[in-house]
Amino acid sequence: MKFYLFCLLTVVLLNSSWCCYALPGGDKFSFAFYGNQIIAAVQEKIPSKDEIISSGNNIISYAKEKIPSKDEIISSGDNIISYAKEKIPSKDEIISSGNNIISYAKEKIPPATQQVKEFVEKNPKIAYIGGGVAVGLVGHAAVAGAIGAAGFQTGGVVAGSWAAKLMSTFGTGGSVIPTLQSVGATGFSALSYITSSLTGAISGCVIEDLTEDKGDEK
């Protein structure tokens, strides 16, 4: 045997012996010892065949106990259908109810309209004043809505809107654009609504007087 092969074999044998004796346990049977420990740990943690079968049977029993049977499901469905038939009105009942509403409306609306007409004829001034106030309030709210729709919003002037075109034309130096922006953002003040309603009431009085004068002339 050549000398370098002898040296190489000697080194391999020495390293193999050192690895065996360096393991805890201090003998060449350490590999077998730790292998047995691993097998014992696996056998301890993995359930046996009987335990697996027992667990499966428990799951099946629990499912049979909690999941309703076919007859129970059908019975529940029949109960729901019976409840729906009892509570939901039939087609004829709905039609009858609709006819009753129409009959009630036909019965009540004409007398109410006639009463309003008679009230206006007997109290024309009050009617005109009330109409003027309503027109003033509704018109005021409509103007505020129109200003907002034009592009004067809470967050500022909307790009590409009529408000933006007005601002580019007139600028913000005057009082028109800032006033419109204020109205569009917060609406009119309570005082302006009161003023509008008073203006409507006065207008109603004037119209009533003019109408009365024309009636007297005839």
UniProtKB/TrEMBL annotation:
Residues 1-22 form the signal peptide. Transmembrane segments: none annotated. Pfam families: Ifi-6-16. Coiled coil: none annotated. This is Uncharacterized protein. One of its GO terms (cellular component) is membrane. It is a multi-pass membrane protein.
